[in-house]
């Protein structure tokens, strides 16, 4: 009898995408020259097995096993949805040196102080190096166990011996299995290591925190299937020159994905910031031309942020456009809108420098109006009135569009001490916070006239009382 035919298999070495024939470009990650033959795939079928745990009606499933247990770090719990769930696997990704290991070592020590068995596996540092960091951030605990391992079988043996309730692996790209060919960190190794760790976590009810590397473009290194297998994916963000670190959930099976945790990275560790708004404001006693404050929404959290701009005469040739913390394309667009619809012709050949205070990155369209007023104030050399903020999106036609969450933004601004607000028309539900004066504008020209005549009322056509 003729034997069954086998089909050669080809796999992308970058993302793990498979094909039945060779192609020059991967159909998943679009990389060239990464598809290679990995052998032959024999068609097979899996017979039915004996059911050890029969299916239950959904109403009879015990939901208490999926309840979250706080880690003791409030900002981290906010992102996770209340804490760590038993048997959950959390992938923590971020750039090197951003604070991932420091935060997880703090979480491990807090869990160990509650008489929980915690195993910290380091594949990048020795146990002595981890101990030195633990001393620096005061993260020593009696039931916190350290192991410097890079072999998957040895890591599983450590789990059998310690029997932890919390397992931390730093990082998943450094662990390798002897049964899989290739160096640690390649597609096959990451898939095997993640699958083994997830299986033991679900079977024994162990909460697992995996540290993941990122590529130069900021995406998580390894196959995309890694993000599908884990329960929670948490991303660290922050600029190297800033102490501020933001942690947001990219995927969360147990809570929302629109929460953001704020941390301060210092010499003594990483500390949660329950009220980070003050970090993004300058402390000038008098109003300064070229500055404007806005309120951005990072997830559900409103952050009061100051935008600064300097519009100066250029030295000739093409004007310079330099930005820090804001998108350069957005800045160029708003400059064009100011020139066309606010009649600020001086910005055409002027150099423009825009920056945010505190190193925070602002990408929300709701900050357009503050950015426009900061640049207009610098061009006119006139400041906005003291304790004034602006929220709104600026369109190409010069209109100021409504944005969401205005009531929440104004409440946060009033709590910090702001008394005036410039917002789009029709986006405020109810009355403004007590002690706050709100001015609604329909277009950018009206908003710029508030800088020219801050003490005079402006009508719906943008005219001041003297003009009318």
UniProtKB/TrEMBL annotation:
GO terms for biological process: proteolysis; recombinational repair. A motif (RadA KNRFG motif) lies at residues 251-255. ATP binds at residues 94-101. InterPro entries: AAA+_ATPase, DNA_repair_RadA, Lon_proteolytic, P-loop_NTPase, RecA_ATP-bd, Ribosomal_Su5_D2-typ_SF, Ribsml_uS5_D2-typ_fold_subgr, Rubredoxin_2. DNA-dependent ATPase involved in processing of recombination intermediates, plays a role in repairing DNA breaks. Stimulates the branch migration of RecA-mediated strand transfer reactions, allowing the 3' invading strand to extend heteroduplex DNA faster. Binds ssDNA in the presence of ADP but not other nucleotides, has ATPase activity that is stimulated by ssDNA and various branched DNA structures, but inhibited by SSB. Does not have RecA's homology-searching function. Plays a role in repairing double-strand DNA breaks, probably involving stabilizing or processing branched DNA or blocked replication forks. Belongs to the RecA family. RadA subfamily. This is DNA repair protein RadA. It comes from Metallococcus carri. The lineage of its organism: Bacteria, Bacillati, Actinomycetota, Actinomycetes, Micrococcales.
């Amino acid at each position: 009898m003729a034997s069954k035919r086998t089909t050669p298999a080809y796999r992308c070495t970058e993302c793990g995408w498979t094909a039945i024939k060779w192609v020059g470009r991967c159909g998943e990650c679009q990389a060239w020259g990464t598809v290679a033959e990995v052998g032959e795939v024999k068609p097979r079928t899996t017979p039915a097995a004996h059911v050890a745990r029969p299916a239950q009606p959904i109403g009879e499933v015990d939901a208490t096993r999926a309840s979250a247990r706080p880690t003791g770090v409030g900002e981290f719990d906010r992102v996770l949805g209340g804490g760590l769930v038993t048997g959950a696997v959390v992938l923590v990704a971020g750039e090197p040196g951003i604070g991932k290991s420091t935060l997880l070592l703090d979480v491990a020590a807090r869990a160990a102080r509650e008489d929980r068995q915690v195993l910290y596996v380091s594949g990048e540092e020795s146990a002595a190096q981890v101990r030195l960091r633990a001393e620096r951030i005061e993260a020593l605990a009696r039931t916190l166990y350290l192991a410097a391992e890079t072999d998957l079988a040895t890591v599983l043996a450590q789990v059998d011996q310690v029997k932890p309730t919390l397992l931390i692996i730093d990082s998943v790209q450094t662990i390798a299995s002897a049964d899989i060919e290739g160096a640690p960190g390649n597609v096959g190794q990451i898939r095997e290591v993640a699958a083994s760790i997830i299986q033991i976590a679900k079977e024994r009810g162990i909460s697992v925190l995996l540290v993941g590397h990122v590529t130069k473009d900021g995406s998580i290194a390894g196959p995309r299937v890694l993000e599908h297998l884990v329960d929670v994916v948490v991303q660290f963000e922050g600029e190297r020159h800033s102490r501020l670190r933001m942690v947001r959930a990219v995927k969360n099976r147990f809570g929302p994905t629109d929460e953001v945790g704020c941390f301060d990275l210092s010499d003594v560790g990483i500390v949660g910031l329950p009220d980070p708004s003050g970090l993004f404001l300058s402390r000038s006693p008098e109003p300064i031309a070229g500055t404007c404050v806005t309120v951005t929404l990072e997830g559900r959290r409103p952050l009061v942020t100051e935008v600064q701009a300097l519009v100066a005469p250029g030295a000739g040739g093409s004007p310079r456009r330099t930005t820090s913390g804001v998108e350069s394309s957005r800045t160029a667009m708003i400059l064009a809108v100011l020139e066309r619809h606010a009649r600020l012709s001086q910005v055409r050949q002027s150099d423009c420098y825009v920056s945010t205070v505190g190193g925070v990155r602002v990408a929300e369209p709701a900050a357009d109006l503050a950015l426009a007023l900061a640049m207009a104030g610098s061009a006119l050399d006139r400041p906005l009135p003291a304790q004034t903020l602006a929220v709104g999106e600026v369109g190409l036609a010069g209109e100021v569009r409504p944005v969401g969450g205005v009531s929440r933004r104004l409440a946060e601004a009033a709590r910090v001490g702001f008394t005036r607000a410039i917002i789009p028309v029709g986006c405020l539900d109810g009355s403004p916070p007590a002690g706050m004066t709100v001015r609604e504008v329909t277009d950018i020209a009206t908003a710029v006239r508030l800088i020219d005549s801050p003490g005079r009322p402006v009508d719906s056509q943008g005219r001041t009382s003297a003009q009318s």
